[in-house]
Amino acid sequence: TLLQPYSERAKTATHPLSRYLFRLMDLKASNLCLSADVTTARELLALADKVGPSIVVLKTHYDLISGWDYNPQTGTGVKLAALARKHGFLIFEDRKFVDIGKTVQMQYTAGTARIIEWAHITNANIDAGKEMVRAMAEAAANWKARIHYEVKTSVSVGTPVAGQFEDGGEENNNATDDDRDADGRKGSIVSITTVTQSFEPADSPRLAKTNEHGDELVFPGIEEPPMDRGLLLLAQMSSKGCLMTKDYTQACVEAAREHKGFVMGYVAQEALNSAPDDNFIHMTPGCKLPPPGEEENGHVEGDGLGQQYNTPAKLINILGTDIVIVGRGIIQAADPPSEAERYRRKAWKAYLSRLG
Ligand code: UP6
User: Fold this and answer.
1) Which residues form the Orotidine 5'-phosphate decarboxylase domain (predicted)?
2) What is the mean pLDDT of residues 32-38?
3) In this structure, which of 20, 32, 150, 275 has its CB flanked by the most CB atoms within 10 Å?
4) Crossing angle (nearest 10°) for helices 131-148 and 101-109
C-alpha cells in the first residue's frame, strides 16, 4: 500500500473512518495532524479554529487541558466536534488506554470526559493483552448502536418509558440505555443492524449547520464522517529508550488484523503494513522541521526530555508513515497557522515524492 495514492487506499480500507480519512487527505492535500497540547480549553478551541484548514486530524490530551468543560451538550468536546465539521478534520484523543477490558470500556465511554462521544479516534497500548482491543471494539459498537437506533424498552419490560422510540424514531428523542420504566427496569438495545437515522436531537450543537454568527459549520466537498469510532494501536514510540520490543510491535500488527472493523492503524515510527491486503493507516509523532532557512538532514534535535524528532520528509518518504503528528513545532511558532501550512506543504510533498 505504500506506493498507492491515498485516494486508492480510500477505496480498499476496511474501516469506514479510514476510508473517510484517506478521502479527506486527498481533498485537503494534507497528511498533517496537529497535536494540540496547550494548557487551556480556550486556547485549544482557538488553535483548532485557526489551524483547522491545514490539518486532517486534531490530536488532543484532554487531561492536560485546564478548564475542560465536561457538559455533554455544550462542553469542550461538543465545541471541538463542531470545529471538526466546520474545517473537515477528525478528532483523535491520545489517551493511550491500557488496562483490563472492563476498565477501558468504562474509561472510554463514561466518567467525566466521555471520550467516545467526541473523539472519532483514540489509541491503546496493548501491553495488557489484545483482549482489551476487543473490549473497546464492543464498547464502540454499543455506543454506535445506542445513538443510531431503536432502543426498544417496551420489548422487554412492557411499559414504554418517556422518550422511547419504537418506529424509527421521533425527533428530540433522547432515550438512552440507562432509561428505566415505571418499575425501575432498564430497557435494552435490541438491534444493531437496522440503522435508520441518528437520534441526536435536530438542534444538537454537534449537528448545527451554522454557528451563532451564521458561519457555515460543514466543510464543503465531503459529507460528514461516519458515526463509527476507530482505534490506533500504539505500536512504537518516538521517545529515547522506549521499551516496546519487536515482539510487542508484531503483536499490535496481529491485533490490528484481527480487529479490522475497529482498528484503523497504528501510532508508529515506520510503516507496518506487510501482508498484501494490509491497508492500515500510520500516524507518527516525534516530527519537527529545522527552523526556516536551515538545511534538512532528516533529524532534528530532541527536547531534552527524551523526545526525538524526525522531519516529515524522512518519516513519510523514507520510513513510509502516512500522517505526521506535530505539536510544539507548530504551537510554539510565532504564527502557528502559517507554520502549520509550512508543515502541511512539506509533508504533502514528501508523500508525492514517495509516489514517485
Ligand atoms: N506522542 C509522542 N510520541 C509517541 C506517542 N505519542 O510524542 O510515541 C505524543 C505526545 C505529544 C505529541 O504525547 O502529545 O505526540 C508530540 O508532541 P511534540 O511534537 O510537541 O513533541
Assistant:
1) 31-343
2) 98
3) 32
4) 30
β-bridge partners, 338: none
ipTM of the complex: 1.00
Q: Name the residue with the closest Cα to ligand 1, atom 13.
A: 94
Residue 170 predicted with pLDDT over 50: no
Work out the burial of residue 38: count CB atoms within 10 Å of its CB; fewer than 13 is exposed, 13-18 middle, 19 or more buried.
buried
Q: Is the CB of 164 under 6 A from ligand 1?
A: no
- The answer on pLDDT for 266 being more than 60 is yes
Look up the pTM and report it.
0.86
Which is nearest to 320 in space by CA: 275, 273, 260? Answer: 273
- Which residue out of 34, 35, 97 has the highest number of ligand 1 atoms within 8 Å of its CB and is therefore the one to mutate? 35
Q: How far is CA 149 from CA 143, 171, 172, 178, 306, in A?
A: 10, 13, 13, 14, 46
* Cβ atoms within 10 Å, residue 21: 30
